[in-house]
Amino acid sequence: MAAYKYMIRGGNTLSGEVTIGGAKNAALGIIVAAIMANEPVTIENIPDVDDVRVLLDAIEGIGAIVERLDRTTVRINGALINDVIVDQEAIRKIRGSYYLVGALLGKYKKALVALPGGCNIGSRPIDQHIKGFEQLGARVSIHHGKIDAKAENLRGNHIYLDCPSVGATINIMMAACMAEGKTIIENPAKEPHIVDVANFLNSMGANIRGAGTDAIRIRGVNSLHGSEYSIIPDQIEAGTFMLMVAAAGGDVLIRNVIPKHLESITAKLTEIGCRVDEYDDSVRVIRDKRLSYANVKTMPYPGFPTDMQPQMTTLLALSAGTSIVTETIFESRFEYVGDLRGMGANITIEGNTAFITGVEGFTGAEVSAPDLRAGAALVIAGLAAEGITSVDQIHFIERGYERFEDKIRGIGGLIEKINADDDRQVRKFRMKVG
After folding, report:
1. Per-residue pLDDT of the chain (434 residues; tens, 9 = 90+)
2. pTM
3. What is the Rg, in whole angstroms, of the alpha carbon atoms belonging to the chain?
4. How does strand 322-326 pair with strand 346-350?
5. Were both Cys, which of 41, 77, 103, 382 would link to 34 (CB 3.0–4.6 Å)?
6. How many helices (H) and strands (E) are present in the chain, helices listed first?
7. Where in 161-223 does DSSP place strands (E)?
């Protein structure tokens, strides 16, 4: 299969409008939750990204009926599921695969699902998931690279999470919504997509209260019914475009967002001198001067998102003064810094902290995306750099950003997706951009 890369000519300021798609992290939970009903469920505003396609194939593989009504709408019917074993090779490559354990355990009281993969940004322990399932009455073991969960009956319980894990919160919530009695999840994650998955489950007849707060209360129900639901906008895609404009310069209206979900990003942009105007369902980002330094520490929501750390580090590397970025969520999230240094960035890594001395500008280089968000950060660097940048391994980026190059071109960025092995396409791009 052909490998593709992005070719980028930097230096263009950005202008116009861009529309944000549905939240990938919400979509993964919602698609899986949909199989818990025995009636058709219609989900709108699904992002057209690789992770979603893999997950839809996986649920189809165990008997769910999946109909793509259009590029961003799907109808799912879990009535004919005939298997609780999910072991396709592709499913191992995405983190959201583990949600199948909670959904199948809740509905059928058993599940055998391949351990998840995703980006190589550090360990993603599933101990909190297992602890929650066991406290609901399941027996859980891991063997041959799979999570094996079984229960005679699931019974509600009081579950305290040692850390506010997004995955564990969603997984336990799904299993508990079809358990007998009442479950309380203390210290849950509060991210917007947690609330969205809870709202979706409620639309199918679940009884979940308190998502987004310090305690989620769930009263189990016997069955879930059909529903129609629209996924929230993607805060990370929106944040990526906000920081893209701040790095490359310009004036862009970013549509289909929930400004409250972007508060931590907006606050940092404002702090370093970027103008952000908020409207009901859009934000406008204007950057017409060099920005200044800031200290950033990633934290669970509503703190600064770890999924925005590479993009923010890239922006601060172009800003005046000395900045410090501390990563508290994943231990291997600075893999991209070597490529930024090759473009002229002055960044020193010590443990989980980046010390950044801002430079006047970057120069184009050949770089490679080590993971999804770092790949987006390298695209931002290329758009801000002088000359031409090529970004390899863009399959990581396509896991979480839909029509990324099209949207960037729509606001004036010079970017093309080309066959990495076709020198003619490379030469054509160079001639085209001058």
Report:
1. 679 999 999 999 999 999 999 999 999 999 999 999 999 999 999 999 999 999 999 999 999 999 999 999 999 999 999 888 888 777 877 778 899 999 999 999 999 998 876 555 555 578 999 999 999 999 999 988 889 999 999 999 999 999 999 999 999 999 999 999 999 999 999 999 999 999 999 999 999 999 999 999 999 999 999 999 999 999 999 999 999 999 999 999 999 999 999 999 999 999 999 999 999 999 999 999 999 999 999 999 999 999 999 999 999 999 999 999 999 998 779 999 999 999 999 999 999 999 999 999 999 999 999 999 999 999 999 999 999 999 999 999 999 999 999 999 999 999 999 998 888 998 999 888 87
2. 0.95
3. 22
4. unpaired
5. 41
6. 14, 24
7. 182-186, 207-209, 215-219
Tokens of 116: 């998840």
- Rounded CA-CA distance 306/327 in Å is 7
Beta bridge partners of 228: 42
Instruction: Round to whole Å and give the CA distance between 249 and 256.
Output: 21
Q: Is 177 a catalytic residue?
A: no
Give the DSSP per-residue string, 246-309: HHH-EEEEEES--GGGGHHHHHHHHHTT-EEEE-SSEEEEEE-S-----EEEB-STTSB-GGGH
What contacts 300, CB < 8 A, 6 or more positions away?
Answer: 164, 189, 190, 191, 329
